[in-house]
Amino acid sequence: MDRHIRFDTLHNFRDLGGYRTPDGRRIRPGRLYRADSLGKLTEGTEDWSRFLALGVRTVIDLRYPWEIESRGRVPDHPSLTYHNLSIEHRPYNQAALTADVHAGPYLAERFLEVAEDGREEIREALELIAKSAESNEGPLVFHCASGKDRTGEMAALVLSLLGVDDQTIIEDFSLTELATESLLADWRAKNDGRSPQWPDFARAPEAVMRLFLAALKDRYGSVEGYVTKALSVDAKALAHTLRTALLEQPPTIYPALTYRKATPADAPTLVHLHDSAALWQLARGIDQWKPGAKNETHFRERMQDGEVWLAYMDDHLVGAWELWWTDPAAWGPRPEDAGYIHRLMTTPHTAPPNTGRHMLAEAESRIAEAGRPYARLDCLSSNPRLRAYYESAGYKVVGEQRAKDGGTGSPYAVTLLEKKLA
Known about the structure:
- The protein is an alpha/beta fold.
- It has 15 helices and 14 strands.
- The chain has two domains: about 15-250, Protein-Tyrosine Phosphatase, Chain A, CATH 3.90.190.10; about 260-420, Aminopeptidase (3-Layer(aba) Sandwich), CATH 3.40.630.30.
- The chain is globular and about 70 Å long.
């Protein structure tokens, strides 16, 4: 499941379902959404039909009244209950900030201001979310303009009360990075083609949420402490209501995965999947993949020179990988006796258990079908956890390449692993 719901005019509409809690439960999919401005929806369009098909019953608009007046709100509909709760009280112009302003500390400080200034509206929003969840009347969506800052802060509070860990909350915030280019294009279209002065406009670096959560906990001890002390709400009771209504045990049996070879038309999807996985890594302090490092051209070239495969559970994309037939950068000149597996990617939080292992087995099967007796891959020497994962799948370390050139101009060390195929 891709938590981004596809619309033509909305760029940051996301399902909060699928995130896990430490006790093994997950947030029910299709119950709680976060979004950019629903004022971009127009009755009679395909986007409006897509939105109504989600069954949303409650909309919480976190923007200022003047934003709604000038830029519109979600259209009226008999199925919808609409609430405007402007949680931000001190407006500021992000587009006009200068390059010396660093997004992490600056926006974290703004988030803390909102947490203090918007207590009344935040309390009401949390109570509405809990009431909607408890009544089971239908999904709820909360949104602001870009679905990044005000929406991100509200999502962090809700996810924390549901028991989701900080790393996942940080990742959820940073997923706006997947919409940054579209949000920038919208801004330019409204401003005569000009670009914002601030380089970090529409960006959501993980440092923002990490610093905000640390500051909130430094001041109140925890998110629950903030809810109790600042909002005058019984945090334990609120969390119990949310968890009872919105958490579920994940399935114990999943459909078998199916596979197909990617075509050039799949390149945008592969970029999206790669960047989602990269943001997952960054939220966990793993210095490996970077968002934007692999573009559509990369994946199309890999299809020309080798193969790229997609994995599905029912109709939902859950992973992908590249299969190369030569890899001189890591392995040097070799006879045609192996296939080389690269960029094994799964959809964070929503792929079924062991998806990576199933995809490895499928890749190995494809290599064997090509008459090659070895499967080979490499991983960063600085990532022992990934090395252990591949070793548990039957791969053996056969060497080190201390200066692999991955085309970035910065050589790096990798561990070489090989598996003899039956």
